[in-house]
């Protein structure tokens, strides 16, 4: 069953490419940051998919379960999510500063302003 | 059944992502990004990653859209199209995507127990952590004890990002006229005010539960910090920034952000003082399991304080910008 074995990874690739497309094609800085977020979440989904074990329960030890999912990817992604929101906030702050200086958040306007001076 | 759930959630995620890329209304894109966060949280839940799902629900569907909406309120919601670039981007994205998909063909099947990822350190964490650390939630014992040094680095990154936001925008907000109301606070919204007031105490209580129950169930400092901040943010959305700043003013939040990192680092130094390595808690108490317990509670507290403080700080700075924009608009 190729589909059920690799479906998760294919969706991850498609999500990642959607995010990358937004970063490359869209000139609006806020849209670029949303694209980066989509990209970032696709990596989270990849890690969590890798950590899944068929029939495994959440990695909280108990008498009822013998098989658990891999806890290590969970740890990495848990911290990555919070670091991700902190860096997103920093990126948005940069956007606000750019808007104050250039009066626009469109990449083209910023480049034209730059070439004028 | 699990497979159907998996495929449905991932397909929904894909549809949402494509629509985010498609739409040119940034407001719609941000709202959909919130839905995207909630969907991915549900997906993490179905994968058994309860701690991750918790965090993503609070961050991806809560704080992240909120910050983006505050940015949109200043920058406007319209977006310009760029057709020539779109075609070029589409071609390069397709090529990269095909390369990546051909790479996945060699990957071990999804969920297979003998994949390389499950064969090295993970079995050791699962079999030995109960004896060495003595707490049931393996994610917490890896996060706070085995890999405490990683987590320290991440807390410092969060703190630094908070500092960055502050140095980019924070210093401009100081000259605000004090009588300006927060733009979101509309005295006429009676339902919002009543419901908001009722909701805040349970949110705080839940945050404390998540903070201190993280060793036995899903939870911990990162999740609790975000939830705690959400309580304050909700209050300031309904009652205005001034009402919140009467309880926790900006300088207190800044000090707390640094205090959390300090608590974390000090616990590490205590490890050295007790004759062990940095961030090794075994020597903190009579027997090593109790020592681990104490150490984990202390550093989770540090993490919670820093995360909550940085999230609140970022929100305060962003809404001060919003108020400032209104004042400038009003004056001109």
Give a topology summary.
The complex is a heterodimer of chains A (117) and B (332).
Chain A: H1 2-25, H2 29-51, H3 71-102, H4 107-116
Helix pairs in contact in A: 1-2, 2-3
Chain B: H1 2-22, H2 26-46, H3 50-75, H4 83-104, H5 122-132, H6 138-146, H7 148-169, H8 190-212, H9 221-239, H10 241-247, H11 250-273, H12 288-331
Brief rundown of the structure:
The complex is a heterodimer of chains A (117) and B (332). Chain A is mostly helical and 117 residues long. In chain A, 76% of the residues lie in helices and 0% in strands.
Structure overview:
By secondary structure, chain A is an all-alpha fold. Chain A has a single domain (2-54, 66-116), classed as Helix Hairpins, CATH 1.10.287.3510. Chain A has helices at 2-25, 29-51, 71-102, 107-116. In chain A, α1 runs antiparallel to α2 (29-51) and α2 (29-51) runs antiparallel to α3 (71-102). The radius of gyration of chain A is 20 Å and the shape is elongated. The model of chain A has no long low-confidence stretch (mean pLDDT 91). Chain B has a domain at 138-332. Chain B has helices spanning 2-22, 26-46, 50-75, 83-104, 122-132, 138-146, 148-169, 190-212, 221-239, 241-247, 250-273, 288-331. Chain B is globular. At the A-B interface, α1, α2 and α3 of A face α1, α2, α3, α4 and α5 of B. Chain B: The chain crosses the membrane at residues 6-22, 29-47, 53-74, 86-105, 151-169, 190-210, 222-241, 253-274, 294-318. Chain B: Keywords: Cell membrane, Membrane, Transmembrane, Transmembrane helix. Chain B: This is Cation:proton antiporter.
Give short descriptive properties of this protein:
heterodimer; A: 117 residues; mainly alpha; Helix Hairpins; B: 332 residues; 12 helices
> Beta-strand level of the residues of chain B, as a percent range?
under 5%
Q: Whole-number average pLDDT of chain B?
A: 88
Helical amount among residues of chain B, as a percent range? over 70%
Q: Low-confidence segments of chain B, ≥5 residues, pLDDT <50?
A: none
